Amino acid sequence: MPDSHSTDPKQGEREYYAQLGDAAIAHAIRKPFSDENCAFNLANLAALFHLLPPPPLRILHLGCGVGWLSHMLAERGYHVTGIDIAPEAIAAATRRRDEAGLTDLVYQLGDYEDAINHEPYDVVLFYDALHHAEEPSRALTTAAAALRPGGKLIAFEPGEGHHDSAKSQQAIANFGVHEADMPPARIIALGHAAGFSRHQIMPHPADLMAELYHPDYAVATDQIALARRQFDRSWQLVRELWREPRRHAFTVLWK
Ligand SMILES: C[S@@+](CC[C@H](N)C(=O)[O-])C[C@H]1O[C@@H](n2cnc3c(N)ncnc32)[C@H](O)[C@@H]1O
């Protein structure tokens, strides 16, 4: 439990991994394969790798946690800097990097709401991390300042309803972390105020894939049932494309 007398609003974030312990850190490092949301994360990664120009590219990964995604990006050949506020996460990420001998991967303990003095980056990435900010506007200001002109911010964040979900309420109560809703509309409004000039909302890849490759198909018993399911699923796909992105999606902003 977080210290209820602390005046540090980020104490829960700083101590989260220490509270979780070694087994949970080991689980997080082995993501996406260790995780029940494996398909969700893999779908996001496929979209991310589609969006990114080929290496070399300088990527700043804010709120990188134990670095499972930073590590993958570095293995692909990108120059990656991962920043996180939790010392245990950065320590675990650094150990794994050193074991793998990756040289183009830098980890730093830091607060993404503070200015970062660095070379300009081509891409800033938030993956499931901006919604933990105390002041998301400050985090977006950091991101804008870190990017070269024309560089882009890519944000995969939980959308509407995240704060009120049972899992988030449990995390807030047990660890004192922030769990805000971070729908595209909020990221875009704050992003424009922070200096971004253009934006694009894209459907959540995992939602599209969940319709296209639904487990229903595996249990259909005849050809007509399969055709019906495919028809139904196609309608759901159109719905996801045009309706759902407003509630939750991923967002790209250009500086
Ligand atoms: C839900 S975790 C996701 C971590 C990682 N992106 C992943 O996909 O596993 C949110 C992360 O944001 C980090 N974080 C929260 N507030 C932060 C801040 N102000 N500055 C830097 N990192 C922060 C947390 O320490 C945590 O690692």
From TrEMBL:
The keyword Transferase applies. It is an enzyme of class 2 (transferase). InterPro entries: Methyltransf_11 (IPR013216), SAM-dependent_MTases_sf (IPR029063). GO terms for molecular function: methyltransferase activity. Residues 60-154 form the Methyltransferase type domain. Keywords: Methyltransferase, S-adenosyl-L-methionine, Transferase. Gene3D superfamilies: Vaccinia Virus protein VP39. Transmembrane segments: none annotated. One of its GO terms (biological process) is methylation. Its EC number is 2.1.1.-. This is Class I SAM-dependent methyltransferase. It comes from Actomonas aquatica.
